[in-house]
Amino acid sequence: MTGYIILTIIAVFAAYVVFYLYTSPEFGRSATKTQKLAYEQTGLYKDGQFQNLIPTEMKMDVMGLVKEYSNKSKFATPKEPVPFEKLDSAKIAVAPDSLTTLTWFGHSAFLLQMDGKNILLDPMLGDTPSPHPLIGSKRYNKNLPLEVDKLPQIDAVIYSHDHYDHLDYGTVNKIKDKVKTFIVPLGLGNHLREWGVKDSQIQELKWWDETKLGDIKLTCTPSRHFSGRGLTDRNTTLWSSWVIDGQKDKIYFSGDSGYGPHFKEIGEKFGPFDLTLMECGQYNPQWEAIHMMPEQTAQAAKDVKAERLWPIHWGAFTLALHDWRDPIQRVEKKAAELEIPMTTPRIGEQVIVGESYPQERWWEQSLDKPLATK
């Protein structure tokens, strides 16, 4: 009888998983045959998948990962919420014309205010970067610097790729009615259409394509990564980095990427950059090809001709086995060796490009005491 009950539970669970995989809107929408034929004409799509510029494979030693996980740092996740500052919704309601400001929401999510435009970068503002709230890492802080419903009207949302820690179904549903346009890599627009975003609101670009947002020129540039939200859609949408070139300031947003020659190419074509937002966390030697090690982040910043580096892709979720502080400590050391200035603001702390670059080493507070919030 006990065995029968166990088998029944397993069968019911398996049925639920299959049902969820095929019915949940979280997974987005697949490309049509016509779209796939169009993708093939780009030179970036082959055998049903988008391709990286250089060979890119993850070395997955399952037993090694199990051993590594069993020895995982007890500080892989902070014991207390990390320091953050609350945003005043009234003060950011209208983007200034004369200043470029950036506010970090943790991980790779930003509010960029440039040339009178409000722009969100990879706005994953949900609690869990996964297709189901019971799966995966929880956000370090229960609260955001500004709740989603208090965001100002958004002129554009820019996405780097479709992974859950960057493209969040719940966030899209909350912001889509206050967003004028979504600017995304090729194929990602299908997910947005599935979630109720109008086709007229979506611009899809391939690498080296350009578009304009008022006086701002946006260029979709390569990264070395992959894509996919389900079990069978790997690399069916493109991944990218972005060059954001305003009237006064120029910003590079790396998205997710392994180290590669594309950084030098981008630097030669578009550099130097006043500020570079570059991923430095959630790494492991086994997936170094698609997520840089922190030392490579500093080198990549030098390659793109960054005048200042802002390390991102950390500080909100634990998606790898390293100590949550390791990324910033390692990239800081290497950046100093390469003489690349950095800025290290708290989540929610506003940066004014060219004027104010916070330098507080807030992650160094005691591991045994609560981390203070301003």
From TrEMBL:
GO MF annotations in UniProt: N-acylphosphatidylethanolamine-specific phospholipase D activity; zinc ion binding
Keyword terms, alphabetized: Membrane, Transmembrane, Transmembrane helix
InterPro entries cross-referenced by the UniProt entry: Metallo-B-lactamas, NAPE-PLD, RibonucZ/Hydroxyglut_hydro
Matches recorded under Pfam families: Lactamase_B_2
TM spans (from-to): 6-23
One cellular-component annotation, GO: cytoplasm
Protein's name according to its UniProt entry: L-ascorbate metabolism protein UlaG (Beta-lactamase superfamily)
Domain Metallo-beta-lactamase stretches: 118-314
